[in-house]
Amino acid sequence: MIATIQPSILTGAITAPASKSSMQRACAAALLHIGQTIIQNPGTSNDDQAAIKMIQDLGATIEFINETMVVNSKGVASSSTHPLGRLGGAVVNCGESGLGIRMFTPVAALSSESITINGKGSLLTRPMDFFDEVLPQVGVKITSKNGKLPLQIQGPLQPQNITVDGSLSSQFLTGLLFAYAASATEETTITVTDLKSKPYIDLTLKVMEAFKMNVPENKNYEEFVFHKSQITNHKSQIDYTVEGDWSGAAFLLVAGAISGEITVKGLDVFSTQADKKILEALQDSGCRLSIQDKQIEVGPAALKAFHFNATDCPDLFPPLVALAAYCEGKTVIEGVSRLAHKESDRGITLQDEFGKMGLEIILQDDLMIINGGKGLKGAHVHSRHDHRIAMACATAGLRTTGEVIVDEAEAINKSYPDFYKHLEKLGAKVLVS
Predict the structure, then answer these.
(1) What structural domains and CATH numbers belong to the chain?
(2) pLDDT tens across 5-41, in order?
(3) Which positions are catalytic?
(4) 369 near 361, Cβ under 8 Å?
């Protein structure tokens, strides 16, 4: 797919997409919940679809009724309890979802069956050494392809006091928290060193609380203590509404800041999602910004360079680059080291693709320095099969001097399938072919 974006002036209102961070966690919690879960506002992205398929493979049954998702589960199945009568030897595919592979591997390990965990695309090259090191400590047999997918696991996972490294991604910890919540009957502690992306752990704990799980005591993000718990087999129905997505909405908000007066609805300003910090960058850039209870209004102004620490919210780098490109002066963003193991090496990719539009980006140790405010030109760019790169280039193209053509533009389906449609609804000139 090719998307062509012409310089445009935006106006109007749009509702943010469903958060895949919230949706995927809700899927995991619904699988572990013994009983029925009603999920309102379910996501439709590729990552969301992968999560739905995974919980079905692991034993949940799903029905869609009037735009809600109804999940019935007896927990992670065995071959004898699986609705389709099989689990042992099954292959559970996470698609291209980094959260999916990291969260569902410990959850799947609750089963005593042999299960293969696989994925596709860039996920095949991402490091999974964490599981090779940690899972044997909790009684899970595991083999991998030199620390890469596919993984073959056999549990059941048996909670122990362990210490894990949180520096690569908080997603590994999220998976362990879910698995421990479903299986720890005695006091057990997960000790964490150098935890990154703490707000995503806040989201995990918030979802666990909503599902009435055994929520651990959080001791300053250094220890998560599961207190003695009675694992019950019968629980009441759970109703859960998936939050609006701050990650996807960040591109809409930046689009408004550089190209028109728009209103974005459906976002919880009290959310624990890490990417809510986009509001800080927008405020510091000097754009017109009105944060209200049920909507956010944003519009252009004289934009100035800003300094932002994205260590705990690395997914904000792409929209921040699109914003900084039109801010007068040198914008500095911290946290480049968090970008290497994404769908692409995002630091390099942003430097290359925005360089085609005439933007100078300097990578210096853990810093990204963006020389903005000089205008961008139209160009032919490539998504590098990375959804956030595709959206960042399209967003920047709303104010370039000529059209921006994005190759492999369908990469957006990973997280925000309606992105181009939403830009069009706001008045952008977008041609998809």
Answers:
(1) 2-17+244-432 (3.65.10.10), 20-158+175-182+202-211 (3.65.10.10)
(2) 999 999 999 999 999 999 999 999 999 999 999 999 9
(3) 315
(4) yes
